[in-house]
Amino acid sequence: MSEKEPALSIQHLTKTFGKKTAVDDVSFDVYPGEVFGFLGPNGAGKTTIIKSVMGFIRPDKGTVIINGHNVKKEYETAMSSIGGIVENPEMYTNLSAYLNLKMYAKLHDNIPKGRIDEVLELVGLKERAKEPIKKYSLGMKQRIGLAQALLHKPKMLILDEPTNGLDPAGIHQLRDILKKYAHEDGAAVMVSSHLLAEMQMMCDRIGIINHGKLIRICSIDDLTNQTTASSMYRIKTSDPKKASFFLSETCGYKVSNITDSFFDIEADETNINECVRKMVETGSDILGVQKVEASLEDAFLQITGGGIEIE
Amino acid sequence: MNKIAALYSNEMIKISHRISVWIVTVVMIAIAILAPIAFSAAEEGLYEDENYWDTVDFKADLIKKKDSLAQTLGDTNDFVRHSNVQFTINNERREVFSTWLDCDEEKASDYSDLICANNLLSGYDFDARPYGKSWLSVVALRSYYSCHHQICQMNRTPFEERNDEWYSMFMLYSQAFDYYYEALFTNNMQSFYNGEKLLSTVGDNYYEPEIIQRVIDIDPSGTMTFEETATLMEMLVEMHSTELALQSNLNLSRNELPRILTASDKAHLQDKVSILNYKFVHRQHYSEKSAFAHQLNTLTISLGRFALIILLVLVAGTSVSQEMATGSIKSLIIAPVRRWKIFLAKLLSITTWCIAGGLLLVLTSTLTTMLLHSDISLPSYLYVSGGTIHYIPYLLYMILTFFVDSLSLFVYILLAFMISCITKNSGISVAVSSGLILGANLPTILVAMIGRKRWIDFLPSINMNISNLVFPFSKLMYGTTLSELGSEEALNNPLSFSLIYTGVLVIILLAIAYDAFTRRDIQ
Fold first, then answer.
1. Do B509 and B418 meet the contact criterion of CB atoms below 8 Å apart?
2. Which residue, among A14, A51, A56, would best test binding to B if mutated, counting the most B CBs under 10 Å from its CB?
3. B452 — pLDDT class (breaks 50, 70, 90)
4. Given this model, what pLDDT does residue A306 score?
5. Is CATH 3.40.50.300 correct for A8-220?
6. Which of B388, B433, B435, B441 minimizes the C-alpha distance to B412?
7. Where are the alpha helices (DSSP H) in B406-488?
8. Which residues of B touch A90 (CB under 8 A)?
9. Among B6, B18, B521, whose Cβ lies nearest the Cβ of A106?
10. Domain-wise residue ranges, chain A
11. Is 80 exceeded by the pLDDT of residue B255?
């Protein structure tokens, strides 16, 4: 991907609020054609980074380059290639959706006349566009926010927690829209979330942030592969203590989660057979063997909590 | 530039979609229309005496008066004596036929009235020159009576006590009496002037002869109405005293201690004389009715101003803070426009509402007033520029004075905007700025309590009350026919000081607001 010019390039971004460092020397690039997931627990600094990019707050240090334009030096040019939602989409609630979009459109150059109807259709709100936004549900507000963000076809689309308030169908639709916008229209999309499953389904690449530091950037596949390389099995038996002791002490397997009815063992597909055979040989009964799927969540917890080395 | 225009039109859309803005606007317009109507209805009763002179049957009253005097006095031969008395006239002794009233002061006075009434009833043409129709008929009659009265009192001096001095004084009053007789019976303003001129030598004149001289210029036959001439006389009196001040080089204003005139004082007084002279020559006399209409219009505007203050504080005080509170500011920040453009657009939109609101109020109120009093012409404001008189039509004058008067209001609106930018809290900005506007009268109260102190000159409201500096000749529109509302204590600094002061204040407020808006992080 590095042969392409990044749509968004953040270098050494630092922002402190009082004594608290919200963002600490963060650098990363987002490229056209990809959906970049921005992952981190609440308060990790995701929104602060997004706000720095969008001009809401002034970073103490670092540069933000959007589509080749430095935000500090060419603010309006840089900002014209960006669109997005920060936290919740806030609009003028006493005005209609259509008027909100029309007012926003005026602030951009060269938005064709039919574009407002186009985005309204895209988010499925064309029928209710004349209603004031205060009558909208949270999900509808989220969708009209997306319509606004897409209005000027930004090369860099940034959505902060975009699935908030959407129903499952809405989430599905949003995912399709974003994927299509990145993969087919060739724009860069950055999505922040603390919901991991969502990221897994939506993103091509992911940046993990915690305590204001960027811990890791990798593709979704890398992340899941890393954890599935050695997988986990759960063995149900009437005496988990005895069996797990034998397997760890004699055979050198890693066991964990020992309860009254089961224990977990780290093994791949070939040596799980051996484990089961050895248990049968030593007289332990086997009530069940089940593969424990490693998820992004585990990986995430491992990375953010376990202090895994950054590549 | 396009971006600013787009932002500006968006701001206007946002404001115009607020119901509260429209409610207050409607209230303001309702005040501006209904108040003049209500005031005019109340005014009806005030002019019952409008045709006072028509209700007076002067001739019938005179006959009644004459009869009752004749009865009181009885036979006049009882106290009226005649004799020839010797006086030195042109260095020779001559016999002069003389009358002696051998009675007390009151009886002489009644006798004088009786003679005057008889004269009038036998020679005065009541139909052609109804008493009270013209100013001259009123003042000449008064002087005619009082002059004759003086003569009768002189005639109480016994024959033997009369000397040459008495005779010359007697002749002076007799001469004056003849002039007043002529003025009264032939409507001759010049004769009235002659009488006043003559009596001025003994200080017994009623008007300055110079002033009457000016009236002769425009009304030689004394046909102008009493009201018209009286108000013209007021101008003349003021003009005369101003000219006296210029001649003596002393400020003789009633409210101040006498002091030597400065160059600017002189220029001001000179202009005042020119304006008064212009008004006099063009017979733009003060009118009680138009003064009243103007006063009601002013009152309406000051009532409507309360609604306007609410409107503007609502618009300016929430402009930024409300967007911050609801988060709608985000859709502005995300847009590719620099923050100073957003700031400027907001400031421009507030300014537009200030101007539009003010215009709406003044136009509605003034036009309603003009419509209700379509029979009266409201006076223009006159001023001198380059040695010639210029005028500002009433409507325009009202608009201009409104905006000059509202200088402080607009500074406070700016303050509301500034607080709105800093606090992001609509409540605080609305409360603080409303409080300051309502407290604007504080300096006047302070001065009343502790007297004039140097630091009071630096209070904002002192320096923003510059209407009488910008329009120094406003009072010449109505003279004393306009009874001022409230006290007229002028607490003014020089205009240049006030303007610089206000300018600095505005720049500070703008700078703080700008800094807060453009540099602050939006959370």
1. yes
2. A56
3. low
4. 47
5. yes
6. B433
7. 407-423, 426-438, 442-450, 460-464, 467-470
8. 326-331
9. B6
10. 8-220, 232-292
11. no
Q: Within 10 A of A195 (CB to CB), how many other CB atoms are there?
A: 14
Q: Answer yes or no: is B26 within a domain.
A: yes
* CATH for the stretch A232-292: 3.30.70
Q: Say yes or no: B305 and B379 in one domain.
A: yes
List, run by run, the mean pLDDT of 10-residue segments along chain A (311 residues).
78 90 91 90 86 90 92 90 88 92 91 92 91 90 91 92 83 90 92 80 88 85 64 84 85 83 82 84 86 64 51 30
State how far the alpha carbon of B330 is from the alpha carbons of A85, B300, B316, B336, in Å.
9, 42, 19, 12
In Å, how far is B333's CA from the nearest CA of chain A? Answer: 6
Q: For residues B403 and B411, what is the distance between their CA atoms, to the nearest angstrom? A: 12
Largest CA distance in chain A: 78
What is the total count of domains within chain B? 2
Please state the φ and ψ torsions of residue A31, each to the nearest 5 degrees: -105, 155
Interface A–B counts its CB contacts (< 8 A) at 80
> What is the chain A residue with the closest CA to B339?
A55
Residue at token pair 């207050």:
B24
**pLDDT single digits (tens) B142-192:** 999 999 999 999 999 998 888 888 999 999 999 999 999 998 888 888 999
Is the pLDDT assigned to residue B298 strictly greater than 60? yes
Q: Please, which pLDDT band fits residue B496 given cuts at 50, 70 and 90? A: confident
The string of DSSP letters for B279-312 reads HHHTT----HHHHHHHHHHHHHHHHHHHHHHHHH
* The amino acid at B422: I
Element housing B209 (H / E): helix B209-218
- Per-residue H/E/C for A165-198: CCCHHHHHHHHHHHHHHHHCCCCEEEEEECCHHH
Same domain, B183 and B304: no
First to last CA, chain B: 28
Residue B483 or A231, more confident = A231
Give how far B401 is from chain A: nearest CA, Å. 37
Cβ contact B320:B522 at 8 Å: no
Shared domain for B217 and B340, answered yes or no, is no
* Site from A94, A103, A150 to mutate, B interface, most B CB atoms within 10 angstroms: A103
Structure tokens at A293: 């799927």
Q: Do B334 and A79 touch (CB under 8 A)?
A: yes
Domain boundary among B224, B243, B261: B224
B99 domain residue, yes or no: yes
ipTM: 0.78
Q: For the CA atoms of A203, A207, A210, A216, what is the dihedral angle to 10 degrees?
A: 130
Residue B192 is part of which domain span? Answer: 59-125+134-224
Interface check for B337 against chain A (CB to CB < 8 A): the answer is: yes
From B7, which residue of chain A is nearest by alpha-carbon distance? A107
Q: Between residues 50 and 109 of chain A, which touch chain B (CB distance below 8 Å)?
A: 51, 54-58, 75-80, 82-84, 86-95, 99-100, 103-104, 106-108
- State how far the Cα of A35 lies from the Cα of A77, in Å rounded to an integer: 23
